[in-house]
Design goal:
The structure is a homodimer.
Chain A lengths: L1 E8 L12 E8 L6 E10 L4 H4 L19 E9 L9 E5 L5 E5 L4 E3 L16 H13 L6 E4 L5 H12 L3 E5 L3 H9 L5 E3 L4 H10 L3 E6 L3 H8 L2 E9 L3 H4 L7 E4 H6 L3 E4 L9 H13 L7 E5 L4 H7 L8 E5 L6
Parallel strand pairs in A: 8-9, 8-11, 9-10, 11-12, 12-14, 15-16
Antiparallel strand pairs in A: 1-2, 3-4, 3-6, 3-16, 4-5, 5-7
Chain lengths: ~325, ~325
Amino acid sequence: MSAQTAIVLARHPQGVPHLDDFRFEQRNVPDAGDGEVLVEVRYLSMDPFLRLQLAPSASMGRPVRPGDVIPGRALGRVRTSRDPSLKTGDWVIGDLGWQRFSVMAAQSLSRIDVDDGLGPSVYLGALGSPGLTAALLLEATQAAAGDTVVISAAAGAVGNVAAQLARLRGCRVIGLSGSQARRDYLLSVLGLDAVHDHRDPAALSATLVERGGVDVFLDSIGGALHDAVLSSMNPLGRIVMYGFISGYNSSGKPASYGSMMEVLRKRLTVSGFLVGDHASLFPSALKQLHELVRSGRLTVVENIHQGLGATPQAFASLFDAAPPGKTLVCLDDDPL
Amino acid sequence: MSAQTAIVLARHPQGVPHLDDFRFEQRNVPDAGDGEVLVEVRYLSMDPFLRLQLAPSASMGRPVRPGDVIPGRALGRVRTSRDPSLKTGDWVIGDLGWQRFSVMAAQSLSRIDVDDGLGPSVYLGALGSPGLTAALLLEATQAAAGDTVVISAAAGAVGNVAAQLARLRGCRVIGLSGSQARRDYLLSVLGLDAVHDHRDPAALSATLVERGGVDVFLDSIGGALHDAVLSSMNPLGRIVMYGFISGYNSSGKPASYGSMMEVLRKRLTVSGFLVGDHASLFPSALKQLHELVRSGRLTVVENIHQGLGATPQAFASLFDAAPPGKTLVCLDDDPL
């Protein structure tokens, strides 16, 4: 047994997460029991979804109470194993939490075959849940060559991969983002067809209609942005919601969803999407993503913070000023 | 050329249609020109959808202005034909309008092979658009044996057929209706598994959850009823909206559609449905419906008003006290 620093919930956030919602505490690292492994955490994945678990009554996922270590998907390496399925040095992904070491049931972890030519962090991004989400969202909407695809949070972890994959399918891709820097990146580095600021819904809607309307809309934001794109959809359009960031920081009545009349009149299809429902498609999708990354046709976009101390800030940045790509915290050589 | 009585729009309805919104007028019946036919109207189909066309700015369909003859789907018989595709005596369906005679382009009409064993009115109901809508809605949702299917306006033209077809598929069918008489009919005559008043959304939602939640929801009403059922959906549930009656009589901001979080959290699919998009499926669906009606497994439920004079009242009843089934107006032996 040894001691380490862990990040615990100090209080339930009110609105956008604040640094004071989190507290650094010394915690014991227990020894691994039968069937368990001790994992050294290497990369923490920053996911907007976590915000929902931090609410007093979590609407999705396991609720977190003040004093609990903050949960979170992470990539680590097995230090000691007391289960035959994993051995020292294996790379694993699981809910390791915001801490340096984690003792976990071996069965709760996924072992990763790391391609030495790629940084291991890619397995939390383009070759992990966000990449799979992007690929399977496009499958679900049957986005085809010539379709106009609008992606909210297009510079985000899922969005940037979805935008690139939609381009590879021959779609016309319009990326939405609230920052000029991210929009520039989407246009000049990732080669999107157009970008638009989502913070002026009326202008957004008018522009989208002018450009011929929207066939596919991948949305993780919701709210006024959502309604603006909804009103620009073409008949038989497909909308998939895979997140609802605009609602994550509010505690009131959940925002309502668009206009019924619009859905009816244009015979739209609107679906909620969680990647975990589609596990049977993971192997083939991962194989394709891996080939695209290896060949350089899919650019890996990451935004890596250094050290456990930077974690609360990295998380809060998801709701504000995060640079393009998957936001991660690297714990290599962490002094904490 | 001869004269006849037609019903014209006196003024745009405010809220629920009122008898004074309509006016009876003498109109000339023109002679049929080349490619046209003169049709004697026999049955007028009363459709809630028409209400949208009567608004000052119609959100769907061809707008109707004061002084215009009220449009509307109807069944009639060709009296004189100046087109080789139709001959005297042929039964046809088209937008004949609220009048005794209509001169129409032959190409705008569908010829019907009337089964003499069935009343011709069935071709506006169970073997017409409503029946096709019901059958294809169930196809679209893939409602399967064991699924719990909730149908709003379950005693209506589409609803009663959908409820019967869902029972034949082995689904558990819960019908919603705002009148005790209609609910009794659904339970005792059509054999639904349960019925519920939709006018108490909180009680409705609680009851549906108690009964194990909802897998498929066919909705033509919208509004508070919709949200109540939405909150009772099971994961991966399917919702199809094929109408939005609660919004037809309002001129304000279109009602919003349920809760985004609910759609996301339960990975629901919500679609807008117009039967015309599915024309390629009509022949096989009609064949099946015809067999079911002939064999008595599908009960034809009709609610027939007599005479053109009864038409405004018949239409207004759709939004209030209509008895179960397809509402029609029969013009046979009409004195007008």
